[in-house]
Amino acid sequence: MKTKLTIDDFKGMLVRALEMIREREDEFSRLDAIIGDGDHGQAIVAAMTAVTHTAQKGTEFKTMLNDMGFDVMLQVSGSTSTLLGAFFLGMSDQAEGTELDANGVRRMFSGGLANVRLQTQAKPGDKTMMDALVPAVEAIQQTEGDDIALLMQKGAEAAARGAEATIQMKANFGRARNYGERSIGFADSGAMSWSCLFQAFAGALNQ
Ligand SMILES: [Mg+2]
Questions:
Q1: Cα 26 to middle of ligand 1, angstroms
Q2: How much is the average pLDDT of 94-99?
Q3: How far is the CA of 99 from the centre of ligand 1 (A)?
Q4: E-strand spans in the chain?
Q5: CA torsion sign, 29 to 33 to 34 to 36?
Q6: Distance between Cα 207 and ligand 1 center (Å)
Q7: What ranges make up the beta strands (E) of 94-140?
Q8: Distance 37 CA to ligand 1 centre (A)
Q9: Are strands 5-6 and 99-100 parallel, antiparallel or unpaired?
Q10: Would you call 49 helix, strand, or coil by DSSP?
Q11: What is residue 178's predicted lDDT score, i.e. its pLDDT?
């Protein structure tokens, strides 16, 4: 049972996410190579490295999340960085103080998703990272109670189901759409890496 999320808790979630994403860098790039340019592993590792580094200086949520979002967009080019940056900037819009309760965590993740939606037209079912992010944030909103560890666990489970579901999907967004039927049978690299992010967040709070 975890009823308060502190800045140090959040930094721990990010460090864990960077570790887990690094471990799976090659897998994410191999998936991206099937319907893209094969750089997703390198891109998500670079982006998570930047945000995690910036977060270490943070002393309260709003400024820390804002700095993370701006730094990753400035330091790392490409859509992975833009979407991750938008996520943390949106979280910053809806978070303040040095610790959050369960409603504060729900608001923070809802703000992150809202800002990502301003950056991409992709919807669940298009075989993109949104297939993991949208159900994760919805599960965080819909899980009742004060236990932040449980919110993150339900978010992680929803993200994993969403990422798994992309295996059966035909790419319907961006350049990947050109691959048509050939995109079926493989998970989307971005859905898998964003699911990994949520697994790490949950793991850091449920150990
Ligand atoms: Mg790529």
A1: 12
A2: 97
A3: 35
A4: 5-6, 99-100
A5: positive
A6: 33
A7: 99-100
A8: 5
A9: antiparallel
A10: helix
A11: 85
d(CA 123, CA 130): 6
**Ligand 1 center to 140 CA (angstroms):** 28
Closest to 86 measured CA to CA, from 117, 43, 59: 117
Owning domain of residue 66: 5-205
Q: Give the model confidence (pLDDT) of 108-125 as tens digits.
A: 999 999 999 999 999 999
**Residue 9 tokens, joined:** 């808790």
Query: What is the amino acid identity at position 175?
Result: R
- For residue 143, the domain's CATH number is 1.25.40.340
Cα-to-centroid distance, 40 and ligand 1 (Å)? 5
Would the pTM count as exceeding 0.90? yes
Distance of alpha carbon 99 from alpha carbon 164, whole angstroms: 33
> For the stretch 42-68, what's the b/e string if a residue is b when 16 or more beta carbons lie within 10 angstroms of its beta carbon?
bbbbbbbbbbbebbeebeebbebbbbb
Rounded (10°) angle between helices 40-55 and 79-93? 30
CA distance 200 to 20: 7
Number of separate domains in the chain: 1
Measured in Å, residue 180 CA sits from the centre of ligand 1 at: 17
